[in-house]
């Protein structure tokens, strides 16, 4: 399994890039968002990768972060979601946007991706909702340990497409999730509340997120 590539950008196309790694060229398919963040041709780059193996096909897919790669693998576990559909979702929402949409059960956000119909979007939310807390926690751990993106370059890279939702502090979200789980809330329930609280206050610290999430989880009436 090829899990990461580091080399130089040889050429870029609409849906893929060729990375030269010590004289060997690897053709890597990426989401629109990842492609937009790549450095110019001739510059250094590193991407996390996932290898799709079929009887008549070997294809590499590249990701800026481990969280994006993990979501790709999970999205492809859903019936009706292949590699192309997964990249469309990630390209539209980004890894953080996917985490938020699934935690909140936001079918319309998933459906906004090119080629994703309402039934498929609903299936994605239903099948992956219980896995959103784990990915949110993974994102916090990766960001704290090694920074956010693995994309590199010798010159300033083109800016990535703007995320459709504000990005909250990943560590604060993870800590808030842990606290709510310790209080007895179900992981999917806690993740939805934390995601909503983080969307309302992107710069909130852990304590603020916990208080806001508890208000959202409080019985109504």
TrEMBL record:
Residues 168-221 are annotated as: Domain III. InterPro entries: DNA_helicase_Holl-junc_RuvA_I, NA-bd_OB-fold, RuvA, RuvA_2-like, RuvA_C, RuvA_C_sf. Residues 1-62 form the DNA helicase Holliday junction RuvA type domain. It is found in: Cytoplasm. The keyword Iron does not apply. The keyword Hydrolase applies. GO terms for molecular function: DNA helicase activity; hydrolase activity. Residues 1-64 are annotated as: Domain I. Has three domains with a flexible linker between the domains II and III and assumes an 'L' shape. Domain III is highly mobile and contacts RuvB. The RuvA-RuvB-RuvC complex processes Holliday junction (HJ) DNA during genetic recombination and DNA repair, while the RuvA-RuvB complex plays an important role in the rescue of blocked DNA replication forks via replication fork reversal (RFR). RuvA specifically binds to HJ cruciform DNA, conferring on it an open structure. The RuvB hexamer acts as an ATP-dependent pump, pulling dsDNA into and through the RuvAB complex. HJ branch migration allows RuvC to scan DNA until it finds its consensus sequence, where it cleaves and resolves the cruciform DNA. Homotetramer. Forms an RuvA(8)-RuvB(12)-Holliday junction (HJ) complex. HJ DNA is sandwiched between 2 RuvA tetramers; dsDNA enters through RuvA and exits via RuvB. An RuvB hexamer assembles on each DNA strand where it exits the tetramer. Each RuvB hexamer is contacted by two RuvA subunits (via domain III) on 2 adjacent RuvB subunits; this complex drives branch migration. In the full resolvosome a probable DNA-RuvA(4)-RuvB(12)-RuvC(2) complex forms which resolves the HJ. Belongs to the RuvA family. This is Holliday junction branch migration complex subunit RuvA. It comes from Lacimonas salitolerans.
